[in-house]
Design goal:
Layout: H1 3-10, H2 18-31, H3 37-47, H4 52-56, E1 60-67, E2 71-72, E3 78-86, E4 89-96, H5 98-104, E5 111-115, E6 118-122, E7 125-130, E8 135-138, H6 158-161, E9 168-184, E10 193-195, E11 198-201, E12 205-207, E13 210-221, E14 224-231, E15 240-249, E16 252-263
Parallel strand pairs: 4-7, 14-16
Antiparallel strand pairs: 1-3, 1-5, 2-3, 3-4, 5-8, 6-7, 9-13, 9-15, 10-11, 11-12, 13-14, 15-16
Helix pairs in contact: 1-3, 2-3
The structure holds zinc ion.
């Protein structure tokens, strides 16, 4: 980012014109001899009321691709990883504190804006840290393309998904679809096991189970044929092209969400 970019970033929010801004910039450079033009432009912007952190770390806007489980730091502060995708790529983020951690819970695929964050360098690459002073806002969904139109949300093939740390979007054709029903705990949705004529959830004890549909699928793309599981109500999937979000657990592909179903013979 050069001084011109700083000007473009702030111009709609300040009452001076371009010429006056660059005059301020050169005055600052005269006083602080070794500063470069961009550094001086950031100081000038601050004098006009726009904070340096906002210019150095402009708000990130993107859709929430994945939300990790809640963990705790050694001092007991809750945190969770999450990943944001937009047309420039995927950003790894970590949010700290009850407020952000809870707020993220229902934001999968939603359009959000993060401001006042900092970026840390880690061995896995840059990590966007969302701390107490940071802000996460949900934006109007129409302000950005849907997640299924963001190229960077997809893997090139299901084989590539095996190497991914996070769930991503894929396309595949279903070549086999067997629907079974599974008894699950009504509280947590996990499978229950029979015990002396009752049903037991490993977390919730004796429960009155609900029946849930399970699709056991074989799906194919250019990289191969894979066993996949999808829990939920969906039409018959055989011979359909599906767009879905999935992750691998061992050798099994877990389909978390199906976005579209298209008959390949129509
Ligand atoms: Zn349960």
């Amino acid at each position: 980012m050069c001084a011109e970019e700083v000007w473009n970033y702030i111009k709609d929010r300040v009452s001076i014109d371009r010429e006056e801004f660059f005059k301020m910039v050169s005055e600052i450079r005269e006083k602080a001899k070794f500063i470069n033009e961009k550094g001086a432009a950031i100081i000038a912007a601050e004098k006009l009321g726009i904070m340096a952190d906002e210019i150095l770390f402009p708000p990130i806007i993107g859709r929430v691709l994945e939300i990790g489980p809640v963990k705790r730091t050694r001092s007991g502060v809750p945190y969770r990883m999450f990943w944001i995708v937009n047309s420039s790529g995927i950003k790894s983020c970590v949010a700290f504190g009850d407020q952000h951690v809870n707020f993220l819970e229902d934001l999968e695929d939603k359009l959000i804006k993060i401001s006042k964050y900092v970026v840390a360098k880690t061995t896995f690459g840059p990590l966007t840290r969302v701390t107490e002073i940071s802000k996460i806002e949900v934006l109007d969904d129409d302000l950005y393309i849907p997640i299924t139109d963001i190229d960077k949300a997809y893997v090139n093939s299901i084989a590539e998904l095996k190497k991914s740390r996070i769930s991503k979007l894929c396309k595949a054709v279903v070549i086999f679809d067997q629907v079974t029903e599974l008894s699950v705990c009504p509280i947590c949705g996990l499978a229950v096991s029979p015990s002396n004529g009752d049903w037991v959830c490993s977390t919730h004890g004796l429960v009155d189970p609900e029946l849930r549909k399970v699709h056991r699928l074989q799906v194919s793309d250019e990289s191969g044929i894979y066993s996949a599981t999808f829990y939920g109500e969906v039409e018959e999937l055989k011979n359909k092209l599906i767009v879905f979000k999935a992750t691998f657990r061992g050798e099994e592909l877990y389909i978390l969400k199906i976005y579209s179903v298209q008959n390949i013979f129509e």
